[in-house]
## 1
Amino acid sequence: MGYRYVLFYKPYDVLTQFTDNSGENGRSTLKDYIPIPDVYAVGRLDRDSEGLLLLTDDGKMQHRLSDPKFAHPRTYWVQVERIPDASAIARLETGVAIQDYRTRPAKVRLLPAEPALEPREPPIRFRKSVPTAWLEMTLTEGRNRQVRRMTAAVGFPTLRLVRSAIGHLRLEGLKPGEWRELQTEEIKPFRSSKPR
């Protein structure tokens, strides 16, 4: 039997693991959604983030997609407090210092409208006096809470974070909590990428 590849729309407040050893009750894990044994998440998506997650039992593919030298793009829709100006977007694009690290250049654009997403439960905090905006950010690295730290570093805290794409794979066609197995041809573009 060949390897298995699963594309999952992780809902908000779900841990990106199959077991929860924290001792806290009622925390959802991947086990609550995906009945396939021996597949593991490629990378991570924080508990308070949503969107695409790829799972597989193919160790080589897992390494290839996780290793920063292959620079696989990951795209996020990011709702931020206030409306970022051109200067903030330029800083995000060229890289910002977070902790002791400078982020790689990213593709960033202000979306003209809110993406078509299911409402989040619970909803984000809303303040009438503070407008919000949506950014589309494409990164080729994935450090811990990187997108949130980047937007905070330029003065626009993240309110909602949704991974909308992993390379050529898109969120469209899935709702929160849904998953589908990928066909072999859908994985081929990842196999042919070269290290940078």
Note: The chain has two domains: 1-71+167-196, 73-166.
## 2
Amino acid sequence: MQYLILGVAAIPFIYYLLALFSTAQFFRAARRHTAPNTDYLPPVSCLKPIKGLDLDAYENYASFCRQDYPEYEIVFCVDRDDPAVPVLQKLIADFPDRQIRLLFGSGRNAINDKVGRLVRLTTEARHDLFVITDGDVRVRPDYLRTVVSPFRDPHVGAATCLYVSTKEENLVQELQSIGMISDFFAPVMVAWQLDDLKVTFGQTIVTTRQAVASYGGYPVLEDRPADDVYAGRLVAEQGYEVELLPYIVQSVADFQSMGELLHKRTRWMTVQRLMRPWGHLGLIFTWGLPWALVAVLTHPSVGVAIAYLGGYAVCRIGITWMIGVWGMQQKGVWKKMPLIPLWDAMAFVMWIASFGRRTIRWRGVDYFLREGRLVDATPAAARNSSR
């Protein structure tokens, strides 16, 4: 039994090695085939659904006004009384040569308000190539030239980017940052290697009017969580390719407390469990830290401790270095590496907690997830009595 447990506890190392191999393949391929885009520059509509005022919002928005690109528009959809409106008006005044439009309100009653805004944005966009980004995203001047390049191939229906934090100002934000680099992007690399990458990230979704129309448009996503994940999946289901680009965008870190981080990440894991139950359960074989501890407790010896705990440390540092330092070329990753075991322990606890939740709390309302759609979990009698 001890040797059986030791064998099972070694399975995460297979995943770690696959992640290392996949990461090496991805960035090597990117460096071989990525060249500056100088000849494919179709007109672009940059679409931004805005709700609330993000940290450093002006600088985030302004980075899209500084693009080295011949023809593009920036379209914001925001409520008239939103605190972001004065910032957007200043943006328009500061960049008079840019085509910037404000659309006030989505005109829709959608569970996922962001998607309701995207329905209007995609409908009223002037151009057929969409670049959809969240309000907390900041980019370099070569961003549009880079992200539109894959669409010279008509088989490409969507593309997305890797992302990092602009800066971290507290321990919680450092944890989130190292978790993204060391944990979140590793399975993304494996999915890319296995030709099974069918998701996009909200930090960048590049797609076409034709691809969006092929699955029924954004109204299909109005009652779904994780709309960015679904946007890539639905495009892939229509036979299009989904490209993962090595280009790095920045996202402003906004977690201010450990409770906020735990709440949002656990909700995200619950969504993943309800969307892909067997895949989520299979994550049990990717948690190296708890399995290493199980191995040591089952067979306490110096050799087992060195092999499992030492192997875990080497693999996790290797993955983080390869993705964050070698691949994404980020500075300051080394000093955050001691946080990896803490993140892994927290992520494992959040994964376990996700199995105890049947509902998703979204903007103060509890929902069931039925066939990928949010269904109000409040009994009808209770809803009526509250009105």
Note: The CA atoms of residues 39 and 154 lie 16 Å apart.
## 3
Amino acid sequence: MGIIGTIVVGLVVGVLARFLLPGEQKMGVILTILLGVGGSLLAGFAGQAMGWYAAGQGAGWIASVIGAIVLLFVVQKLRAGGGSDGGAK
């Protein structure tokens, strides 16, 4: 798949992940594309580690969206924890 195909898939996966995860995500188009591409990569690596995909085989759409949701969730938690009082309770 060429670079344009990767960008389009990243955009679609990123938009789906942002739609499915509740809450407000403040990110533009570029970060949404990077989220989708990162989710696809995460799903591919995790699928290969679990034996679901062969090396070089891309993850499916559903796995890519789930990977992007996981990444988005982690980013939200890191952003929320960044402005805290250092974890003191």
Note: The helical segments are 3-20, 29-49, 61-82.
## 4
Amino acid sequence: MLFNYKVVDEKGVNKEGSIDAPSKDFAISGLQRRGFIIVSISEVGEKNKIFKFSFLTRIPVKDVVILSRQIATLFGAQVSALKAFSLLAGNTENENLARKLTQVADDLQSGLSISGSLAKHPDVFSEFYINMVKAGEETGKLNETFLYLADYLDRQYSLTSKTKNALIYPIFVIVTFFVVMGLMFVVVIPKLSAIIQDTAQTIPVYTQVVIAISNFFVNYGFIFLIFLVLLGIWVWRLSATESGKTFLDRLKLNTPGIGNLYKKLYLSRIADNMDTMLSSGIPIVRAIDITAEVVDSKVYRLLLKDAAESVKAGLSFSAALEKHPELPSILVQMVKVGEETGGLGNILKTLALFYKREVDDAIDTLVGLIEPVMIVVLGLGVGILLVSVLVPIYNVAGSIK
């Protein structure tokens, strides 16, 4: 639970803030251990919680990247964890992140470990992040761990952002295409078809088809719109179920054009995650399990979970991956070479870079092809509609002469 407080410190200075604690008593104890005299303390209302944790206050990945680099710098300068998080909380522009860092500092002062304090904020620090920090605590290389994390998050943020941005343009063009076609069928075609039907000439078959489609949208367009809304709701509810997530992820991976792009994106993420964790000393089974949780694909999550169970049963990592045809043979063979030579981390790093380049090339190719293809399709669609209704009108005008 989250509590707002007003206190007076040992120097008599009034302070305000918030603290996360299991109960009000724990919150009071935590503040008193810091030497504060409590003036008032109250639980944050449910309405306020909803506002604070809405998508509007979600902490961007780039802020976590910057935070990780700052922590690494402070740890490298031999600044204590409590002092480091307190300094960062007071110098962070993002108010939501500053509040969470203050809570982390409070938890550290209460005796929690850094990984345990960060684990209380899963909306900011993923399981992957927490396990990396835990490994850094065990090996005594926290500054290196946070640098690993900053580099990893920076790579993933760049790759994911580039993929999403590449898909925005074609989606915008497709939506524009359907809007234009819809307006043509509902607004333009009915007016022109009325002129054509008032004439006594024979209407070409292709024009009759266009007029029939236009009449359908004019008469039943509202019902069609309701159907689309219901379909959207059904897809949304389907995506909330485990089987639905798997189905939609498989559909996305098998979609021509973007499916191959997503496959390479996920493979790059898997290789990068595994390399980062193995380099930090995390056992391979644990690394596979964590990667399964953060890969952001139900298909690959199930695949990796099965691979983890196979490794627990005594199979090598490459043999566990070889059971799944979804994975390219080059990846399996490279992992096998890495296991045989004892350089699995380096092999995974090479694979991560390879698939990152593949994603970059696929995005550049997609963006390069989408623009001319969409323009041609849009032009042909509008052109066919206009020809279908304007040719009969020109015929009428010609017969009048």
Note: The CA atoms of residues 194 and 211 lie 10 Å apart.
